[in-house]
Structures are given as structure tokens and as C-alpha cells.
Amino acid sequence: MLVNSFKRGINLPTRKHATEGKPVEQVPHPQQVVIPINQHFGAPNQSLVTVGEKVVRGHKIADALTPGPMTVPVHASISGTVTKIEPRTQSNNTEGLCVVIEAEGPADREEFFPPLDPFSCTKEDALARIREAGIVGMGGAGFPAHVKLSPPPGKHIDLIIANGAECEPYLTIDEAAMTAKSHLLIQGLAVVMKITGVSRAVIGVEDNKKSLIPLIERELRLEEFAGDISIGLCRTRYPQGGEKMLITALTGREVPSGGLPMDADCIVQNVGTLVAIAEAFYLGKPLIDRDLTVSGGACKTPKNIRAPIGACLKDMPVEFMDIDHARLAKILFGGPMMGTAVASLETPIQKNTSGIILMTREETIAQEEGPCIRCGRCIRNCPCSLSPVIMNNSLDAADLDYAVKAGLLDCIECGSCTYICPARIKLVQRFRVGKQRLRIRQQQSAAATAAVAAAKKS
Fold first, then answer.
1. pTM, entire model
2. Where are the domains of the chain?
3. Phi and psi torsions of 256, nearest 5°
4. Class for the domain spanning 3-21+113-282
5. pLDDT 10s digits, 228-263
6. Which of 349, 286, 290, 307 is nearest to 111 (CA)?
7. Which of 68, 209, 329, 373 could bridge across to 361 with cysteines, CB 3.0–4.6 Å?
């Protein structure tokens, strides 16, 4: 099979050996979950429950008062009693309102939607089911899945890509999902093809997972609605799992500057998202559980797990999840390249939590920044063909406009430039701050324009 790839990027030690090939283990029933009411990219939700109210696993507990296209509800992941509704620190290190539920009654009590046949219902009903199930992109961004499957008029989509590249070191949960739930992956992909009216799909995997190909091919032969679904093998290279990189590797197309995958006539969905879509239709199950990898040098029992959304590692019994607290130096939600460091094991698992990496001091060597030596490595290795050094110099000079011209808004924050920089300059962190400064400036400009318009009316 032809192995595809993209230009640039970097070769990383994968460090997947600790959990590679391991099945997904169910977390023992937690006594408490802390569920953030906002776990998506879009308009905010409000709590639909009150303290003291009893809820059942699968019940909706948060949604927008006026559900819009960029809103996704949240559901109870265990049955019990709402004991608190209060701000808690989330995996993005900001405080957000959370619903705290204490377990009560039978652990297996749950109430889901009735199953829905995706091939006989209307497109509107199918999209409504995906939204009501609270499904977001599970690769990390948390973008509402029903929005991604509703491209605006004029956008011609001719290919669906299932993203199973999983290029981040340590993480193996997508591999585990493709191994144990390949039938649900194919079913979810067929549902997406039916909704979008696209007749062709590709499942993209890196060549370090090529052992999965016979398994997936067998499921493709068995599934009645498989359609034109093939497998695309990509070279193991970071960040092959980025949407733009995967599209280029599998199709040769390029997403234009400032554009989205739909501008290259593609829709990309993570394999975990596709499994969740299949479960929403065939089982009526909302997105209330999250499969993720827990690994790292400070984890004595690295494994792939399935946990209720809102569960915390600190609440898992030591015989299930044994952590070497004496060696624990850093907790990462996500992978080591694009993940976020959090302060505590009390941080709840969310819909977009693909992994928790418990790192030792040896794994997190921190070095002081030095001066830029103009070596150009960040430019040569940037998978988006940007100029990180010019973007950084522009931000240092407080010239946001030139930073944008150099590609600031096209940066996917993959961390390749930071990893390869011999001066150890924290480039990605600076770009994140630069984007935030740009958003603040745009908000201030919009507010000033609105004030001027209001003054003219008066």
C-alpha cells in the first residue's frame, strides 16, 4: 500500500509502547463526577438542574436557553444527586461552572434516547440527534459535530476523512477504538456519508498502525452500508493528525490560508467522534463517556480507559490507577506537544480529553530561553510553511498586523517550532498570547464601532 505524507514536520519518539495494543478498561463506578456545563467551541450553556435534584445517567443537565447552531448540550454521566453547582478549574486552566453529582442508586441505571435509523430519517432529524447527543469533535478542539456536518451552501464536499493518525506521543486511544470498535467506526462513517450526501470516504492511519488494516478491511466487507470507504496509509510523522496535514497527505489538496477543510472539499472527523455518532443512533446514547489514554513515567499502571465525563483521576482506586506521586512532576491533559498542563489530579475529564500524561521530572526537562540564532529550523520544519521567527519578532515589536501577515492566524499550535528550536524559545506560547491580544483588539474595535453607531442614532 502506498504510504502518503506531507512536507516538513518532525520525527518524534512515539513513546506509545506502554499502552500500545492494550484494550480499553472500564473505570470502576466513581462516587462523584464534576461535569463542566460548557465543553464545546461555541455559545455558552446554562444549567438545567438545581442542587438537590436527582438525575439519571443520560439526562440532559445543561444546554443553551435558546439552542443555536453553535450550542451542544451536556448530560449526566452517572445517576445520583446534584450536590453543587459551582465554578471549578477545568482542563483549559480557566474556571467554569460545573455540576457536581454524587452517585446514588444502581450504577447501571440509565435513560437514553430511542434508537434512530439514520438511513430512513431526514437529514434534519439526523443532525438534531447528533446535536442532542452532545457530540463534539473528540480529537481535542471540541467543535460541535453537527455544525461540521452542515457546510454552508456553495461548499462542495466530495470526501469524508476519518482521522485515525493519532500522531501525538504516548496516546493510543484512537488505535484502541479502531481495534475494539471498528464496526462502530464504519457505521458512524456511513451515517456521516448519508447525512452529507458524500459517496467516498477514507480512513487515515499512520504506518505504525498498519496492523489494523486487515481488521478494518474485514469490517468494511461485513458492513452493509459501507459504500466507497478505503484506507489511506500515512507516514508516521508529527503532526500527521492535523486536519490540514492529513488532507494534503491523502488527497494532495491544500487548505488555503485562513480556510477550513471544507475549502478543500473535505470534512475530517476523529475516529472517536464517528464511534460516538454511531452510538447516538444505534444505542441512543449521548456522549457521556470518554475513552482516553493514561500514561507517562509517573503512572505505574498505564492503560487505555473508559471513564464517565466529569470523573477525576484522584477518585480512581489505586488498584486500578496507581500513580507514583513522589515522581509526578507534571500533569498534561492531551498529548505532550499540544496538551495543557494542569495543576491537580482533581481536574475533571471532559469530552475532548484524549489522554492524561503523568510525567516525571526526567520527561519534562525545562531549559531557559536563549537568544534566537537565526538558524531557520522553525521555518524548515513548520508543517504549515509559516515563518515562526518572523511572527515571534513581530509580536516582540508589538506589531500584530505584521504577525498576521507572517501567518499567525494560520498557526495550528502544533509545537514543532518550539520542539526544534535550539534556543528553546517558547514560540507556541507566544503565538497563543499573540492570538489572544488580537482577539482583544478586535473586540475593542467592534465595541468602539458599536458605540459610534449608537451615538449617531441618538
1. 0.93
2. 3-21+113-282, 377-457
3. -65, 160
4. alpha beta
5. 899 999 999 999 999 999 999 999 999 998 899 999
6. 286
7. 329
